[in-house]
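Please produce the structure of this protein holding 3-methyl-2-oxobutanoic acid.
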Amino acid sequence: MAEPSIPRITIPALRARKTVGPKIVCLTAYDFPTAKILDEAGVDLILVGDSLGMVVLGHANTVPVTMDEMIHHTKAVTRAVRRALVVGDMPYFSFHLGVDETVRNASRFLKEAGAAAVKIEGASKKRLKLVEAMVEAEIPVMGHVGLTPQSIHQLGQFKVKGKEVEEARKIVEDSVNLEKAGAFAVVLESMPLEVAKTVTEAVGIPTIGIGAGPHCDGQVLVFHDLVGYSTGYQPKFVRKYADLSATIGRAVGDYAADVRAGRFPDDSTSYHLKPAATTGAAPRRGPSAAGRTKE
Ligand code: KIV
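Below is the modeled complex.
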């Protein structure tokens, strides 16, 4: 029987949420099973973030993440998603060599990986031109201001932005300029809630906050932080809704104890000869669980 079709979240539908609500629920995902769970749980926007580099690939920051890695993981996510809008994150140095290279890289997220949009950090004059060029090429773009993790080597450390008036003004101006350049939404990362509120009121596109307080039009968190499956430093803005690291650790410990004690596998997890198989010949090798073969 064909699966019932679920209406997809589109860019216009997402933009309309700014005025009609409800707030936009966004999370990161980097693989098929996680994306499937998030989509079925009703997450509106799934970001294949370059945080992939830190939470999945074990890098110290997002700088080493490549276009090919982003495409590989975005493909896995879009294979699972039926409803949510999937956004692919432009990794460091995928948009630094000029307009043509940027548009070509951005188009890969749509053409090869099946995403509906891309995200790009920053709002310098040059960056705004890139946003315009991508939008001109029919690629929906989400902006990202405040703390922009790809600038880690210039910043020296990940820290809250916009605590001083000048920096706060710049965040508001950058967001307004991103809207003018054609962005359909903007991520506000690590800033005082007052600044995020001002931006949210100043722009006509949805603001998606992470460490930016409750006044944004939507919220995003890194999935691994939300479920307690991260290994690194946890920023103040994270709320942990589960403790997956502990759950997985316990499951693996129980498995190891069972294997060592001979409790696993047992009769119920082993294959058997057919009752009539009395040939005396060696049984065919049991099919592997990895192959999911039925007995
Ligand atoms: O890479 C990422 O996951 C992000 C979000 C934190 C917004 O950019």
